[in-house]
Amino acid sequence: MNPRPAERCQQSLARWRSALEADLLARRAAVPGRRPHLRRRKGRIAVVTDSSSSLPVDRGTQEVLLGPVGTNIISVPIPVMIGDQIYPETSPDLDRDLPMALAVGSPVRTSRPSPGRLMQAYQALQAQGYAGVVSIHLSAKLSGTVEAARLAAGQLDFPVTVIDSGQAGLGLGHAVIDAAITAQLGGSPASVAEAATRSAEQAESLFVLPNLDQLRRGGRINAMSTLIGGLLWVKPLLQLVEGEIHPVERPRTMPRALERLQDRVAQQAHGMTAPRLAVHGFGNQAQALELAEALGPLSASPIPVVDLPPVLAAHLGLGALAVSLNPELPGTR
C-alpha cells in the first residue's frame, strides 16, 4: 500500500533533517582541533526567527524540531486572527480552523509578535548562557516583525543583531539554518549574521496561487493587480523581489502555471551553486509532492515538502504552491 500524502510529507522532512544533521557533523569534523560532537560552551550565539520561516516546531512547546541543528534556534510565532478570534501560537486549533476559514471566505488577518514576546525570547537565551543573538525575520515589507525585534533589542543590555531577510518560508528558514550552523561551528556574531544575510540575499521564492483574493484582502498586493487577475481568470505566478510580492507571469490555467513555475525554478537553480530547494503547499499535499518529485534533480539536498505556516497561508490561501531556493552554505560538506 502506498503511503498517504501526509506520511510522504513527513518522510520528506525526515530525509531533509537527516541530511542537515549529517552536514553539520561533517562541518564540525572539519574544524581543526574539534571533535564532531563537541559543543562550544563559551561565547555561544543563538538564532531567533519567526513562524514564517516554515521550520518545523512542536505545536505544544514551540521547540524547533531539527535535532542537533536546531539546538540554538528559537522560533517566535506570528499571531493569526480569524474573525475576532486571536491565535497567538501555532496549535492544533489553528491548524483545524484556518483551512475552514479560508474556504468559506472568513476574514483572516495576521499581526506582528509584540516586542515583549520577542524580548522574552532574547532574555531566555541570555539566561541560558548565550553571549548574543542573531534575530532573522520575515521581510519587513510584508510584516512589522523586524520592527518589533528592533524595539525589543533596543531595550536590552544584551547584544542582539536584527536582520530583515527580505524572504519568507524556507527561503528564510534555510538562512536561519545557515546562521545556526555557523554559530555552532564557533562563528562570531558578525559571521553568523553574514551567513544569514548571504543565504537570504541569494535566495529565490516563487509561488503560484489559484487566485489573488486572499493577497488582496490582506493588503499584500494592490487592487489593480487583483482586478486584472480576476478578469483574465489567471493563476498568477509571483515572486519575492527585494522583499515584496511581484507578479512574474499570468498563466490562465493551473497546469500552465505549474509548468512555468518549474521552468523558472530550473533557470534559477542552474545559476546557483548547489541549490537547496523546498516546496510548500496548503491544502494540496499530493500536488506539492508531485512538484517536489519533478524538481528533485535540481536540488543538491533532499527537498522537504511542508505546509505553508499559518502566517503565510493566511495571505496566500488554499491551493497555493511555493518553491524556495537557497545556495549552499560555503565550506566542507
Q: Short summary of the structure?
A:
By secondary structure, the protein is of the alpha/beta class. The chain has helices spanning 5-30, 92-104, 115-127, 145-153, 169-184, 189-202, 213-217, 223-232, 254-270, 285-295, 310-316; strands at residues 45-50, 73-76, 80-82, 85-87, 108-110, 132-137, 160-164, 204-208, 237-241, 244-249, 276-281, 305-307, 321-326.
Describe the fold and architecture:
The protein is α/β, with parallel strands linked by helices and 333 residues long. The chain folds into two domains: 20-201, 3-Layer(aba) Sandwich (Rossmann fold), CATH 3.40.50; 204-326, Hypothetical Protein Tm841, Chain: A,domain 3. The protein is built from eleven helices and 13 strands. The strands form three sheets. A six-stranded mixed β-sheet has the order 10-9-8-13-11-12, sandwiched between helices. Strands 2-1-6-7 form a four-stranded parallel β-sheet, sandwiched between helices. It has a three-stranded antiparallel β-sheet with strand order 4-3-5, with helices on one face. Strand 9 (237-241) and strand 10 (244-249) form a beta hairpin. Helix 3 (115-127) packs across helix 4 and helix 5 (169-184) runs antiparallel to helix 6 (189-202). It is globular, with a radius of gyration of 19 Å. It starts with a helix and ends in a 7-residue tail after the last strand. The mean pLDDT is 90.
